[in-house]
Amino acid sequence: MENINLITPGTGHSAPITGVSVSTDGRHVATSSYDGTIKVWNLNGDGTLTELATGRHTRLVNSLTWAPTASRLASGSADKTVAIWTLLDNRLQLTNVLSRHTDDVNSVAWLPDGRHLVCVSEDGKATAWDADTGRLLGEISGHRAHCMMVATSPTGHIATVGEDGQVILLGPDFAPLATTVVDCSIEGCAWAPDGKRLAIARDDGRIDVLDLDLQMIATTKVSGSAARSISWSATGEHLAVGSYEGGIRVLDSPSLESHLQLNHRALWTRSIAYAADRIIAGGFGSRPLVFDAEVGGVLGDGGRQLRGPNALLPRAGHLLLGTDSGEVLRYDETGTGVSIADLDSPILSLAADGDTVFAGTYGGEVVRLTGPADDLRADGVGLAGAPVPSLSILDGRVVAGTYNGELIGFDTDDMTPSVRHQAHDGSIKSLARLGKYLAAASTDRTVSVGTLTKRHPVLQHGNLINDVAHSDGFIASASRDRTVRVARLTDSTDGSPPTDVRVLTGPDESVKCVGLVAWGDRLAVFAGSYDFRVYVWDVNFAEPATGRYPHRVVHVFDQAVSALSAAPDGAVYAAGWDGRVVRFIPRIAGDRLEVDTTTVVETCLSPTDSTVVNHG
């Protein structure tokens, strides 16, 4: 297994912050990150933070939580372990590792005794552990899909929630007490300080408050997009909710009426936590954000903006990167880079129509950028109402695939939405143009093909699909089930699925992105994975399917691969969260597939790497 090896200029994290937790005495904040680290900070009286200590996992860290004893910490990671730490003399000491998990650990929660804890993971299981001895006490519950979060009450009650819409309640002795189901995924849950009320965050934008029998006490709609994170104030009088619309809404309890709205361009609402009269939140900066929970306002600004690359757009003679900082970076063939646009939200996707570039943002905007190639300016905005992880061009429209599963067609002249269609039951992670049709890959495990409003499934996976690519009549999809599927599309209109589908294996983590280069019936299939590697397969559709296709690793990044795109000239570009961009040029030499590899960008992470031309 490759280990994360990021160079961190300055203090703080080098990738987005995934989790925040406040110690029971209120003195310390702990954060986890995609950079594979956890950090402990002093929470100063003025709301600023001072970095104290760092711990490391070998993969990204999904969550962490302080024990009731204040100096003890548990962190759950995509390396399938939970690490137990003790803060001593301003240093983190690793005291145990719980390593018998079979999949990524999404969330951890301590029981009130400060010794036992519950962990939940992508395999749907909730397991109980003795943190002192490292002993697995057993599997205590299970979900039919990913288990997303666990929360324990002051009285020792345990709640787990998942993508199957289930809420499962267990007693302090791990005995099952109650179960309820909603008709959408649930990503967050939190107990009120009295231990009698459980709040859940739903993907349909609702917040439910439930009693100990999981009966509804109150519910309200807080967002047009998914609600993600929840934290109660110490008195139980307020409830802070983070949503994928990008803000934090503070609600009064029990009325659930809106009390305060908190926003910041670097805010990522995957995790939030109350700290007395402050709210701590993760974000796209090097440090957590600190808000005044009473009157609003930012006390801690999130540190430096991070430039993790999320989107790649090869252009004639140059390459565009869309980043976590909201910048569009332009690199020429020598690797010289400039920042040519600076938006108010992280950029998740890019597309182009002639000289016009479009950027899809985490804040739910589709921004039109026009002007010279080295000086783009924002001159139009379309509102999608949810994060925009994918963009494409079809029928004179820029098409946005949203977190809510919608396809939205914006007229490129005035950026108004002229077509809106609920195409999938999950987030549309990727779009690919197929002539007059469009392929869409979704977290509902399917790839669909068709017009904006008339679509049919063509590929299915055993887990969510991250990416789809197309080349000369072939289509490929990349999935969290660690496979790539490639098929020939003979007819995109009749609704029948392809009959010749090749399944490619090799990665030992989720496959994040895929690209194709075709020479007639022969394909070079490139894929980037969370295992830091870029793979290539040589697939010939003129030959019968064999069921086994050898792969080669053509590059290893120092972090997970974040984006991959094939250019019209046959080159393939891949970017990693370590800030590097690599170009691959595949060719057939005799009967063998050869790949030439060149690093074109050494790092895009540091703000000193690029000259800012214009903030559009």
UniProtKB/TrEMBL annotation:
It holds the Pfam family WD40. Keywords: Repeat, WD repeat. WD repeats lie at residues 10-51, 54-95, 98-139. InterPro entries: Quinoprotein_ADH-like_sf (IPR011047), WD40 (IPR011659), WD40/YVTN_repeat-like_dom_sf (IPR015943), WD40_PAC1 (IPR020472), WD40_repeat_CS (IPR019775), WD40_repeat_dom_sf (IPR036322), WD40_rpt (IPR001680). SUPFAM superfamilies: Quinoprotein alcohol dehydrogenase-like, WD40 repeat-like. This is WD40 repeat protein. It comes from the Bacteria.
